[in-house]
Amino acid sequence: MASSLSSCWALTLVIWGLLVVASKVNFYSDFDITWGNNRAKILNNGEQLHLSLDKYSGSGFQSKNEYLFGNIHMRLTLVPGNSAGTVTAYYLSSQGPTHDEIDFEFLGNLSGDPYTLHTNVFSRGKGNREQQFHLWFDPTKDFHTYSILWNANHIKFSVDATPIRVFKNAEHLGVPSPKNQPMKLYSSLWNADDWATRGGLVKTDWSQAPFVASYSNFEADACVASISSASSSSPCKASAWLSQEALDANEQEKLKWVQENYMVYNYCTDTKHFPQGLPECSLPS
Question: Is residue 105 annotated as a catalytic residue, yes or no?
């Protein structure tokens, strides 16, 4: 199985012509503000970016680079106070009806209630792989690091270097894996009070606007899809994270701690919506 995955991975790299780039953020050079007019602002000589939301519009940005596999980190401070109805999305995605996507979404809540961290994985346009968590800290008080490690073997979601979720490659069980489509990194702050907080029961309080989320310290040790390097072999092989297949013992303990204490929804145990079960849910982390 491992050799098969490695062969597919190497072939993918050759097809796309990839360059491993390890970079630290400069929001001016690494990202484009894509919507929201002046609601999105780059500050401190490119070291920080703020997104804001008011009753007229939210805002968003996307990476200039397109990645096929990566170990990606961003530090975020979420909307403080009464953030009910707001969603801060931070995700990788390709385009089109059969797109792949790897999601962090932070669902706001009433003051004093915990944020809900919503995760999902799409492959070939199909999602419905949600897991949700509360956090063991207040994500509005300071910056915390939210990471996605994405390779041909698995996708690992981490918060402050603590794994919270692993999605394994299960192609041998007939489950499509997001490993063939390059993806850009996106983020947005928007109003979703029809569903975001308690299923839409709690609406956005616009008297609290503007709502602001802050970003810093983006790092991408990643394979960048590059037409100019199409003739290269597989330069990504030198990066250790690309061949990682499973969590080590310490990571396994951290993952277990998070899932036992902070997971609030798991599609793998949702027998109402998935009565036949899901093959990828039986795989070890």
Answer: yes
pLDDT score recorded for residue 16: 47
Q: Give the C-alpha separation, 189 to 212, whole Å.
A: 8
Distance, in Å, from the CA atom of 120 to the CA atom of 62, rounded to the nearest integer, reads 19
280 as an active site residue: the answer is: no
- Tell me the backbone φ, ψ of residue 99, rounded to 5 degrees: -70, 155
- Choose the catalytic residue: 101, 130, 171, 280: 101
Q: What is the mean pLDDT of each run of 10 residues along the chain (285 residues)?
A: 44 48 74 96 96 98 94 97 96 95 97 95 95 98 98 97 97 94 97 91 95 96 64 53 93 98 97 94 88
Q: Compute φ and ψ for 54, nearest 5 degrees.
A: -130, -175
First-last CA distance in the chain: 16
> What is the per-residue burial (b if ≥16 Cβ within 10 Å, else e) of 20-48?
beeeebebeebbebeebeebbebeeeebb
Q: Are 50 and 215 in contact (CB under 8 A)?
A: yes
Instruction: Say if CB 177 and CB 170 are below 8 A apart.
Output: yes
Q: How far apart are CA 27 and CA 179, in angstroms?
A: 26
Task: Quote the CA–CA distance of 234 and 18 in Å, as a whole number.
Answer: 7
Instruction: Give the integer Cα–Cα distance in Å for 224 and 183.
Output: 9
Q: Which of 47, 66, 105, 260 is catalytic?
A: 105
pTM (2 decimals)? Answer: 0.89
- Please count the other Cβ atoms lying within 10 Å of the Cβ belonging to residue 14: 14
